[in-house]
Design goal:
Chains A, B: It comes from Streptacidiphilus jeojiensis. Chains A, B: This is TetR-like C-terminal domain-containing protein. Chains A, B: Residues 21-82 form the HTH tetR-type domain. 2 copies of one chain form a homodimer. Chain A is built from 10 helices and no strands. Chain A is mainly α. The A-B interface holds A 39, 91, 115-120, 123, 128, 131, 135, 154-155, 159-160, 163-164, 166-167, 169-171, 173-175, 177-180, 190-191, 194-201 and B 39, 91, 115-120, 123, 128, 131, 135, 154-155, 159-160, 163-164, 166-167, 169-171, 173-175, 177-180, 190-191, 194-201.
């Protein structure tokens, strides 16, 4: 056991959550900030993140292995914190609540920067895996909204989960990234009602 | 009248379409290529476009005035060429046809690069006006799809044109820019049917 590990344990006893949790939070935060500045394909290195977070690069490497694992962990952790899956008891209200959370997320400087970075970069092999895993994890987290709606007979049993989530999430990103118009009062509700009942309905 | 203008007119007589139309096409093409390389906020100048197009910067300035006018003209002209508004006789088929055109457009290197550039850049004042005008012009061009559907009683008279078009167009851009998954066979039809008849329908 090294002297540092002993210190870590001592501090972990003193402070609930502990040094390990704090270091992890610092490293993930440094990763997001670097990602927002560089874009995910922009040559982000473990040593730059280590410098920003004030920890040793070797500690990061021991814990996450590669930059791409670290990026994935940072994006997923951040989105889970910012975008908890609503459970209101109805599909409409769940969709409205999730859309509001995503709109607020995309309206923050970090949310904007991350979405721009994900949209902008040319695919490099290191990122390609993280991107697919990120969206898969987001779908896995939010598919319970669709599962619960099926259980309540609000949606057919053979509903395409991904289609529901994409139709809800895509217009919010389209506005934030491409049109750059704010989502005006009442628009989320009108959008959700159109999705649920159909434009021709 | 200068010697060059005399030559222009002589050439315009010799070749239908003429030198003026050819210069315009060359300048717009050079603008798109530069835009795709730089991103629209990336310090695009009239002199760089002039060099790429092989014309004098003063000719560009006389014709378009500013870089932002030129960018707007280039993007609108290109999208009008690539995305003619379908008129099939039914709303469903118009929506499917437009979605196919947009998917194919976003799948070209130039289409990808332009969408990435529009998504990526921080807003500069020069671009902000062009962006709003670009999307307004695209909505104006495609709203006839909704108008004709209202006339055929396929949509209610108070249908929100922009909502219809955004719900159709956004998932295609979301896939191309953020998820980077190809649009698989049959997905456009399933998406259009969900939009028309509702997820809960």
């Amino acid at each position: 056991m090294t002297r540092n590990e002993t210190n870590d344990q001592a501090e972990a006893v003193r402070r609930p959550g502990g040094r390990s949790a704090r270091v992890r939070a610092d490293v993930l935060r440094a990763t997001l900030e670097a990602l927002a500045e560089h874009g995910p394909g922009g040559g982000l290195t473990l040593s730059e993140i280590a410098r920003r977070a004030g920890v040793h690069a070797t500690s990061i490497q021991r814990r996450w292995g590669t930059v791409q694992n670290l990026i994935l962990d940072a994006l997923l952790t951040y989105s889970q914190e910012q975008l908890p899956v609503p459970d209101t008891g109805s599909l409409r209200d769940d969709m409205v609540a999730l859309a509001r959370l995503i709109t607020a997320y995309l309206d923050t400087p970090l949310g904007t920067a991350l979405a721009q970075a994900m949209a902008a970069v040319d695919e490099d092999p290191a990122l390609a895996g993280s991107r697919a895993q990120f969206w898969q994890a987001r779908y896995d987290a939010t598919r319970t909204i669709v599962d619960r709606a099926i259980a309540r007979d609000e949606l057919a049993a053979d509903t395409d989960h991904q289609l529901v989530l994409e139709l809800l999430v895509a217009p919010l990103h389209f506005r934030a990234l491409l049109i750059r118009q704010p989502v005006e009062e009442g628009r989320i509700e009108r959008m959700v009602d159109a999705l649920l009942h159909g434009l021709a309905g």
